[in-house]
């Protein structure tokens, strides 16, 4: 597995898109910090970008890499290696290279700005942690979609829909249900709903850490009331971990039964 | 060495292989032939564990291959389409496969045979189809495997490399190996094959030597025998 990880990582890290992704974060980080001159504002802006952008890039890279490397995967399948190792290796290769672009792209400007001398360091780390989680989750979900759909166009379509659902549609549906069922107690529904969407979950997680109640929103406020800040953080991290494990599990299961 | 027992496979409504059984024990070159979509590639992929059969089983060295992967240490496979990660170089891919298989390899010989020395540091994405196929051939033949599976090995090769490939296949045969080959180029099959396995509509239509097939169909060469089978 480590061998396959190593090679798919070194393939990806040299691809043009990894550089574009890295440069994008570099520009974003530098311009936010040095134009704004306010660390906490920069972190909040970045959070809003990261919770939408990392899932999107993860989704697109995941399906694209899977479909592009189909023949190469066949070559690997003919080698004396376990199937699960091949797919886990490729999955980790994609996720780690994307997470590295994120960490370096934002880390360098923040380091230069002097994040270590600031109390905001933990908030910034939280931002990177949740971005990394979202990358791992959405790459796994998109590889699942690609494994279940041999047709490239279909798979790509479903993957984009999946991202759109979690990033945009989910919130819309949630708000509509809040309006429609206004007369009922909705606390538990709202809590469950935020657990079932990794994007919402990481947004709440960062906001809990930032401790800005004005930005928490309805679910965030519930979260804080229900769990308090400390337990809220821990339980959202635990939930994000589950969000990583489940798609990895189905990915391994499906890959063992699939024909290539 | 290889025993095929009642293998069946369908994709959706389409039955690709229907209750196929045979054995390959002695060394030699076995050509798996058949029209497009007759299940040649599917059969080879079942042998390699890439496609999972619905019925029946495949034995390699007397052992069932399902849920096993170590047996693939003894098979060299040349896939139909040569496609590699674009950003790795030729050396890297050769080292990677060596690294995965952990077997003694003689890649230098093959690299010089196919004139790949000057392309070693090039990225795979920039290579032409024929050069990529040569890399593919090096990857397949650099190990000393008792079984070699070749799926359309001549695709994109120039005549000089084609001759070299044929010599290579003959050498491997003389070394006492089992070589399974599919091809649509009948000249190549006629030149190389010791035995022919002809698949038609998911079943073995014919298994035997070239001479048997010619006398069975009453034709002079392989091309015409096959044409007689397909359009009587």
Structure keywords:
heterodimer, A: 260 residues, mainly alpha, 10 helices, 87% helix, B: alpha/beta, Rossmann fold, 6-stranded mixed beta sheet, 10 strands
Q: Hey, roughly how much beta strand do the residues of chain B contain? A: 25-35%
The amount of beta strand of chain A, in percent, is under 5%
User: What is the share of helical residues of chain A?
Assistant: over 70%
Basic shape of chain A: globular
Low-confidence stretches of chain B: none
Name the CATH architecture of chain B: 3-Layer(aba) Sandwich
- The percentage helix of chain B is 25-40%
Instruction: Please identify the oligomeric state.
Output: heterodimer
The secondary-structure element order of chain B is: EEEHEEEHHHEHEHEEHH
Coarse structural class of chain B: alpha/beta
Overall shape of chain B: globular
> In whole angstroms, how far apart are the ends of chain B?
35 Å
Ends of chain A: how far apart? 19 Å
* Radius of gyration of chain A, in angstroms, nearest whole number: 19 Å
